[in-house]
Amino acid sequence: MATAFPANCSQELVWGIVRTESCFLKLRKQSGRSGMGKMGAQFTTEPGNLTGKNAWKYSGLANAKTVSVEPAAEGKGVVVTKKVTNKDRVYKPGKSLAKQTLTKDFRRVAKSLKGTVSGTFYRPDLEKAALAKWSLIHASQKKK
Known about the structure:
- This protein is α+β, with helices and mostly antiparallel strands.
- About 25% of the residues lie in helices and about 15% in strands.
- The chain is globular, with a radius of gyration of 17 Å.
């Protein structure tokens, strides 16, 4: 268990609860043969979830270390948010997130994003998802 999660509950316990009983869930039932079973696709809008899939790997609520990539307010660049792993800030929700605004060109933002996500061994499994989200945000911010 990582140090950035409260000691009174485990990540697995939180995921067991949040997996099916979260206010962020968006369940889409599929009729016919969808390959997703009777439940259909399960999506989530929780903060800290890069892909929107309701999965343990991407969960922003159940994981001690999460990365979030959102468009910047001024319409140029991106805001990268990650949970702080400092023990002193675990029980302070207002100080538990570190935000960084990146406004350079595509290549420099991608390099900085790689360094933030996997360069420091924070969450290397989320590198591809973070870069994919940055690519989509950059394409939406291009002037036509």
